[in-house]
Amino acid sequence: MDKRQDVVSSAQPQGGDDPLVEVIVLVQELDPIERDILVKAAILAPSMHNTQPWKFHFRHRTVEVYCDPTRALGAEDPEGRMTVIGVGAAVFNLRVAAACLGHSASVVPLPDTHRPTLVAEVIVGSQPVDVSGPAALYPYLAHRRTNRHPFADRALPTEVRDQLAQAAHEEGAMLEWIDQPDRVRWLLELATEAAIAEADDPRRLVERQRWVGGERTRDGVPSSAFGPRSYEPSGPVRDLAIDPADRLRSPGRFEPRPNLAVLWTVSDQPRDWLAAGQALERVLLVATTQGVAASLLNQPLEHTDLRWLVRDPRAGWSMAQAVLRFGYGPEVLPTPRRPAEEFVLADDDALPAEGR
Ligand SMILES: Cc1cc2nc3c(=O)[nH]c(=O)nc-3n(C[C@H](O)[C@H](O)[C@H](O)COP(=O)(O)O)c2cc1C
């Protein structure tokens, strides 16, 4: 028998009452190269402040995806919603890499109530599948970036907007384009209000100092990723700068008519956040295939009262999970990632699952 094969289920009596008929299911384990490809793809996902809040544990052909509580943002993300969205984005990348390897991948959200940090299991199929679809996104994983620079004052073609909305739809979320100038203005005002509310919050400032600014080689957002500050008080990017030197960096003129969109889910439970994260990453990767840059303008969503105001009162009861800005901008540098091996849990470090 191939050493990489493992018996995961055996001796199931089959065929009615005949105890002699047994089924042995042989499943070929993921080999180390496949595991490495999966993890290296997953960790390229976006995460709030680039905390990289995920951990992976391999069990046969299942990748258990945990959130890493040591990377939680207690002040800016007390519910852990942004963390789970980031983990969802990593799950989407795992699916893309699995497809590229010729495997199907099915996601089981929150599979174990006894292990709340276990956000999802990704079960990687052992049979070859049609690799079209998500596999086509694989070459773009390393090129997707958050771009906080000014974009050209140019609308996105309708086909591209439809493609991005379809990408969200395929993951069970909705991407709504914000076209009315008064709603664009409203969103920018909410973002400014959030920035004002944050400016005096010492817990947020301390937390942000841990993750944002300066030179960074492992995690966090380096100053070089801030882009210019906006001339306008209500610019369409989030100014993450804390350090006085960063705050006084050169200003730039941002596009007067930003292409904004809101990503919605129908409810607001952790499984919706997981879906939103997968939708977010799918949308961002499809944008990358089209040469479209993106940044997030999420700060109103981090304040319960302002998040509520992002809703169009005429729309249903959907919950906003991300505010996105799209456009055509300059190339930007990648942000750092920790080495892939730091994200892989040994068997002893993953919490035991019943019946494993
Ligand atoms: C849930 C979530 C929320 C985010 N919120 C913001 C935001 O409000 N403003 C911003 O500029 N970037 C935001 N980002 C982008 C991250 O800062 C970015 O993904 C991270 O620094 C890694 O850089 P990269 O996207 O270029 O790989 C967010 C990302 C995620 C996943």
Task: Provide tags for this entry.
single chain, 356 residues, alpha+beta, NADH Oxidase, 4-stranded antiparallel sheet, 12 strands, 29% helix, globular, disordered N terminus, binds flavin mononucleotide
Written description of the protein model:
This protein is an alpha+beta fold and 356 residues long. The protein has two domains: 5-142, NADH Oxidase; 146-327, NADH Oxidase, CATH 3.40.109.10. 29% of the residues lie in helices and 21% in strands. It is built from eight helices and twelve strands. The protein has helices at 32-42, 81-100, 158-170, 181-199, 202-211, 244-247, 270-289, 304-310, and strands spanning 5-13, 22-28, 54-59, 62-67, 103-109, 118-128, 174-178, 229-230, 251-252, 259-265, 293-296, 319-327. The strands form four sheets. It has a four-stranded antiparallel sheet with strand order 3-4-6-5. Strand 3 and strand 4 form a beta hairpin. The two termini are 23 Å apart.
